[in-house]
What we know:
The protein has 597 residues and is an all-alpha fold. The chain has three domains: 15-251, Growth Hormone, Chain: A, CATH 1.20.1250.20; 254-322, no CATH class; 334-564, MFS general substrate transporter like domains (Growth Hormone, Chain: A, Up-down Bundle), CATH 1.20.1250. The chain has 17 helices and four strands. The chain has helices spanning 37-59, 62-68, 74-103, 105-128, 145-174, 182-216, 219-239, 254-266, 310-313, 324-342, 344-351, 356-363, 381-406, 414-445, 461-485, 491-522, 537-561, and strands at residues 9-11, 367-368, 372-373, 592-594. The chain has a two-stranded antiparallel sheet with strand order 1-4. A two-stranded antiparallel ribbon has the order 2-3. It is globular and about 80 Å long.
Amino acid sequence: MEPPERADSIEVDGEKWVCDSSVDHKGRVPLRAHTGVWKASLFIIAIEFSERLSYFGIATSLIIYLTKVIHQDLKTAAKSVNYWSGVTTLMPLFGGFVADAYLGRFSTVLFSSLIYLLGLTLLTMSQFLPCLKACEEAICHKARKVHEIVFFLAIYLISIGTGGHKASLESFGADQFDDDHCEERKKKMSYFNWWNFGLCFGVILGVTLIVYVQDHMSWGAADIILIIVMALSLVIFTIGRPFYRYRAPSGSPLKPMLQVLVAAVRKRNLPHPPNPAELYQVSKVDHGRLLCHTEKLKFLDKAAILEGTENFAEKQSPWRLATVTNVEEMKLIINMIPVWLATLPFGICVAQCSTFFIKQATTLNRKIGNDFEIPAASIFSLAAIGMIISVTTYEKILVPTLRRKTGNERGIKILQRIGTGMVFSIATMVVAALVEKKRLSVAEKDPLKGSRLSMSVFWLAPQYLIIGIGDGFTLVGLQEYFYDQVPDSMRSLGIAFYLSVIGAANFLSSLLITVVDHVTEKYGNGWFGKDLNSSRLANFYWLLAAITAANLFVFVFLARRYSYKNVQRNVAVAACPPANNNNNNQGDLVLEIEVKR
């Protein structure tokens, strides 16, 4: 049976066809058995694996390249890394907006992959073409200007590519699951866990295999591996095109929210209707789902107050009258702001993994046996291993158990999962402080003081594993939270909001270091000296533990008062009971949909 091509109102079999406004690669209503779910999302996870391998293979060794090859001093190199990291974490906000408003997620991923590939190609050329190499001599004391220009152009092209990837790819994968189908809805909750499972394997290979090739072979050889892996993954992603479900871009998601604000201000003097059912609502929307009215932020409800008859309302400007759904979407964004702020201390703790934790590893004994030495950046792989353990345990053991006990499809609410990870971040900072205190005591007694210590690098393993386990709760929870709780038309931007937590936390970490350094130097011995042995990092870790612990109480307060998205469930599926999850969804109904021509 072919899907109907006329734009008539028909009753659709929700078990056979996907009725969530998505289309297949030919623009038709997708056939459930042939599109979406794992058969499509595995293609998407494959390209995320290669992107993370490339990104972490470059990012973890960037400061080493800048100091050893380009010969920047440590301060300049650190600034260069911070600027690049800042741009890379902010670019998804732009990429997500473009995907949601204009290009769509598939096209955005495709174009950003090509830009990413162009950046990797330039990076490789700068290692092999004589006119672009750092210098012609075997021993180089200063890189040529043309090499610097091409190198920085290449890594910033990779930043632009990452911006499109990170905002669109994860949300495109989640789009392959129908929220109105009970079985697919459960699979979607597992999707974010397995997405991060694949991501972590990319990180592990990036900070072990790629970093090892950079250290023991050459930077160019590592770049060739990255470009081959990225090109193959792009081919795989394109092969999956017939299996994907697509959503058309819906225009700027910011415009309807601005209209709600303007309409609410214009009608600020009108009284609230005694019954919320008197507020203006439509029977269906072109993109996304209808939302139910909630009692919070009631001032915004005034945007949906009818000033005339229902027929007259349809002729009113959206700058004067908004629907209940548009008002509730605005409430969702406002409710997210406190949660976003409350997750920043966790992000600051995570930021230490790629800065001070790595710097500590460079001072410790990294030898395994007599000959093999672990690259300092490879210790980061322990965090990814911890995250894999956490995600797998959560998915296979905790979720089934908690589902039976709580009756919640997710096992626990999303914010409860995020808060659990915050507890692990506090434990990480406590352990890190104790390990640093031990390292300093060894440094004072070690005869090779000022050089590498006899203390094993694996003393850092507990803090990396604990923060990795916390990431499996908080970072995965944040991905799910921002994707699920934003308006349906803003899901690429939702993933960008999650990434912006990490980006903003990195900037805040730098700011906190500057402030602490200034204060401690003014009132005594500074906590940050010229090297680790003259610093007092343990005190800084205790400070982070205290800040994160205090913030946890704030987060719990916000989580207890938080109202989740209240969606009207529209599409019924045979033998599918109403959802019992955080969203307080209504019972299922049979929907008459307008099928795309």
